[in-house]
Amino acid sequence: MRNVYTIHGWSFTPLVWKETILANANHIALPGHGESPYKSTNLIQLSLEIGKDLPHQITLIGWSLGATLATLIASQFPQKVEKLILIAPTLKFMPLSQPEVVVKRFLKKLNNNFFSGITYFRQICGANLNNVQLLKEEKARELLKSYVYFSLSPYVKNFPVKTVIAVGEEDNVTGLIGAYKLFNEMNNSKLIIYPKEDHFSILRRLDSLL
Transmembrane segments in this chain: where (predicted)? Predict the structure, then answer.
């Protein structure tokens, strides 16, 4: 998969793709999530850092926070991204996907005990708890704060790249509403809803998206 690039979600690493059809794709590691050459924890700046490194005519795949970042990259480097696949995306995490009170409670939980907060979050996702030790607390927390307050609305109107949006019917992290609102504002996009899949299990359905 020489021309396929992936961006994982928050609190995970590129290892999340290991058991999927994308195991041999080119995996981008987020700052604070394992070994990453990228420094910025501001989504706009990070999208510019990554976008400059990408070749042309790629398929770019982002999951969760990675979907927001992939959208930003495609909006700023449309000549490089031939196809965009967004898995469990949201137009704006707060308040569309999660109410403000829930987000602030979770940020407080992270401040009190970072790795306990990560464990709690991964359980909500329906994911395994491996490789938590690869996370770097300060950068991971800063990246999350940039994400939860960020809106894609200004970047998806007249969107130049063909996009597939995929979401699990039982996703209780970014959710159906977040994905639908993004689809509703993003022209040139297609929405696919997978029954019985949650925020994490949807990754096993990637073979139907490529």
Answer: none
**Which residue type occupies 20?**
T
Distance from the Cα of residue 194 to its chain's centroid:
17
Strands 26-28 and 58-63: unpaired
Distance between CA 36 and CA 7 in Å, rounded? Answer: 12
Question: What is d(CA 33, CA 137) in angstroms, rounded to the nearest whole number?
Answer: 9
User: Among residues 40, 65, 63, which one has the least CA distance to residue 50?
Assistant: 40
Residue 50 sits at the vertex; the CA angle it makes with 16 and 139, to the nearest 5 degrees, is 65
Q: What is the pLDDT of residue 123?
A: 87
Q: Mind listing the pLDDT tens digit for each residue in 47-69?
A: 999 999 999 999 999 999 999 99
Range of 26's domain? 4-208
Report how many domains make up the chain: 1
Q: Any idea what the Cα angle at residue 86 is, between residues 45 and 108, rounded to 5°? A: 60
